[in-house]
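Retro notes
What went well: the complex prediction finally ran end to end.
Inputs used:
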Amino acid sequence: MRSAKGHNGPCRRGEIRMRLIARSRLGLRAVALTTGLAISGTSALPVFSQDVQSAAVVVRGDQPGAVINRNIYGHFAEHLGRCIYEGIWVGEDSSIPNTRGIRNDVLAALKELNVPVLRWPGGCFADEYHWKDGIGPRQKRPKIINTHWGGVVENNHFGTHEFLDLCELLGAEPYICGNVGSGSVQEMMEWVEYMTSDADSPLANLRRQNGREKPWRVGFFGVGNESWGCGGNMRPEYYADQFRRYNTFVKNYSGNRVYRIACGSNGDDLNWTEVLMRQAGRQMNGLSLHYYTLPTGQWNRKGSATDFDESQWHSTLRHTLRMDELITKHAEIMDRHDPRKRVGLVVDEWGTWYDVEPGTNPGFLYQQNTLRDALVAALNFHIFQRHADRVVMANIAQTINVLQAMVLTDKEKMLRTPTYHVFEMFKMHQGAVSLPVEVQAPAYALDGQQIPAVSASASRQASGDVSLSLVNTHPQHAARIACKLTGLTPKSVSGRVLTAPEINAHNTFAAPESVQPRPFEGPRLSDDGLQAELPPRSVVMLELR
Ligand code: AHR
């Protein structure tokens, strides 16, 4: 039985993470990019000294940018801990109300998020998964051991048909991750044929025999996961060749067109991106990137999900903002090899990773989710949206009961986390046109480090309505926003705010609605634009009509 600590990805990441912590100036440059300010040193930002500080924002409605791909709001569900089993799948005979085995409460909650795309079956599990174990009559499916995650029995009751049924029920695009690490080319080729071919062929007929007449549309296919770690410990040169070989046999059947995603870098491994783009850039549609936020930056002692002080609030948000620096650096390499931006950057694993909840299986990665996670989600979305010209998809890890989850379940009970509420509040950004935003905000400084106190992102929908999301990272000080709107003449403004009295506020099964969005009082429109006062530690979403 191996714990999460023993798995290759985080171990390798840990070494890298410690080097990066020492490079605080790089961190600050990332902060500057997130706000649109030009900052080159530690003294560039004024520091808060009063209860309310002012921030100047400009939304450039006259300079529309790229469309925000709705898949940036994507999800990831792995056969890990209680994500699939208990979280999504309870089986048709369960006393928990379900639709063909999928729990109804979770389905309803996820539907409210307009989940655009769902990645499955892993993660590290994907490179140990043999899809034929998960088809046919459930009672006849083999029981295997999930060696990567907790050593528990995997009965394969949730397989290809069940996953694609879930996607159809959610109206989400499936993103399937294939097995390069321990699977054959033939196995991968046959899986795609089984799912997507309409021919009179043995694999399409096997699908029909298993109850599905029509092929599914599978738009996204990942050729391996973390091939630099749990997916096979490969060198980039070797993986680039493996990608070219496996990808050759991922075919487009019966009008289905597959967007092929190559395994990308672990955080700041720029060499991986360089080699992949050089040796396989022409064969891929997308290249992935994985980056997790750890409060301490150390894999062996990540920090608690709920029991943390202001120092870890600050360091968690600061580490989150590194996402901007990482995307910028990987995108620069991609730009050199692919100036037309044909290849998309797919951030298919991101989110917070804490020490597991005390008393839970270390291999299950179960963690609570607080107001801090809500701010992490919002800051990441602002970063993805700022890079909408290159970032085409992002998948939070993971949807239910694992890492930074939307939903937690306990038998028949279910709760929505603060992260869930950010996904719901931000759904107006999905598919809208990004609008450049400039922010001049004071610093929020602690422990000799500083981050901007305010972050903002804006988009315009086809209707002309504008969504403006704002984050106040400071836990004690409100932020008074004076926002100029160029090329925009809205008639009304309304909004919602997510905040709580404590930085570690969270929802429990006894009190599932402690942290939830409420109407936001006081935003005003005037000849000068928009004025609003963001409460401390808050996420605000405004709609300008
Ligand atoms: O999301 C948990 C794990 O993190 C995934 O299985 C793996 O890809 C990464 O190391």
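What we learned: Confidence is low (pLDDT under 50) at residues 1-44.
What to try next: split runs per interface for comparison.
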